[in-house]
Amino acid sequence: MSDAITTLLQSKKEINTDAVVIGAGIIGLLTSLSLAEAGMSVTLIDRQTAGQEASFAGGGILSSLEPWRLSPAMQQLIRWSQACYPDFTRQLHDKTDTDPEFLRCGLTFIDETLPLSAQACLTEADSDYCRIPLEDAKKEFPNITIHSHVDLLPNVGQIRNPKLLKSTIELVHQNPKIRLIENHPITDFKSDGKQLTHALSSSSQFSADHFILTSGAWSNLLLQKIQLETDIKPIKGEMIRVRPQQKLISTITMKGDCYLIPRKNGTILIGSTVEDCGFNKEISPDTRTQLLEKAIDLVPQLSQATVIDHWAGLRPGTSREAPVIDRLPNVENGYICAGHFRYGLVSAPGSARLMADLVLNRKGPLDRTLYQW
User: Fold this and answer.
1) Which CATH code is given to the segment(s) 3-56+163-232+320-371?
2) Residue ranges matching CATH 3.50.50.60 in the chain
3) How far, in Å, CA of 166 to CA of 188, rounded?
4) Cα angle vertex 353, ends 351, 357, to 5°?
5) Where in the chain is the domain with CATH 3.30.9.10?
């Protein structure tokens, strides 16, 4: 946080902008940039350092993973966003000092039993989708244990999400329309009955014409301040990162609930778990062992790899088939964009575009009726 913002907060003056965005993960960051590009002034506030929750903790896979299991609403959001990422990451690298490391590495499903409808869905997700029979698959992927076949989506990409966040935050700092305030939890709101008038912290108050919640797993805690509630809740996921002795895989490799993500720097991410345990982000030695066992079963030579990191993140889980991206009920100037579960990063450009179109009352390329409260 800049010295100017620190001084402003210490002055305890009311801070006014056109929009207040609460939650500086990738969706909050991109929403702020979209509004600023349209000429709005934005105060973007996060309870801690920007970009340190689900956006940071995930694997950076730019895919729906198993699209046949997703709703049309979720598929629309992901596919539109996937198309944005190559140019978006190129622009980020051009405008900042950080390369988000976009890589079109492909995605392989190992020994997956798929109905014809699922295969058709994969063809829609990647026009170059193909099934590779066992003998050919063993030759093409010699380090992977394969028993029947491989389904390959060669055009699936990935990014290195910590670097994506770093470069996007740099872009936010460059924009004079955006004021980013970190480590500053919002504790309450003021309302005149129909509209929100202020977002409050322990030491400051922020007024605006529009208030937008992009707070992920924490969204429901803020909604309760204005007598609203959703079923969005934190779902913990743990991942580990290993360094093998040699290059073992070149594509994102998935079998069942285990996936391996090869990074440009030679490391491999192994994920991930799904656990409903509140806001607990403690990592478990047992989980680390389970993840390693599944990875070694898939790629035996990973038994010689060195574990270099182990972390947990909290996804915004929900029983809905898509996130809610909508105006808040009975709050004319309040909005929410949350509930993406595993798909927040891959769908971030589309989610931010939907939210900006709603706030700006403009027609956009995506059908926003699919994401209503």
Assistant:
1) 3.50.50.60
2) 3-56+163-232+320-371
3) 29
4) 120
5) 104-157+233-317
CATH level 3 topology of 104-157+233-317: D-Amino Acid Oxidase; Chain A, domain 2 (3.30.9)
Buried b (16+ CB within 10 A) or exposed e, 4-26: ebeebbeeeeebebbbbbbbbbb
Q: What is the pLDDT along the chain (373 residues), one digit of tens a residue?
A: 676 777 677 776 799 999 999 999 999 999 999 999 999 999 999 999 999 999 999 999 999 989 999 999 999 999 999 999 999 999 999 999 899 999 999 999 999 998 888 989 999 999 999 999 999 999 999 999 999 999 999 999 999 999 999 999 999 999 999 999 999 999 999 999 899 999 999 999 999 999 999 999 999 999 999 999 999 999 999 999 999 999 999 999 999 999 999 999 999 999 989 999 999 999 999 999 999 999 999 999 999 999 999 999 999 999 999 999 999 999 999 999 999 999 999 999 999 999 999 999 999 999 999 999 9
| The pair of three-digit structure tokens given for residue 207, joined into one six-digit string | 């007024």
Q: Can you list the alpha helix ranges (DSSP code H) found in the chain?
A: 3-10, 26-37, 54-57, 72-95, 116-125, 134-140, 161-174, 219-223, 285-298, 348-360
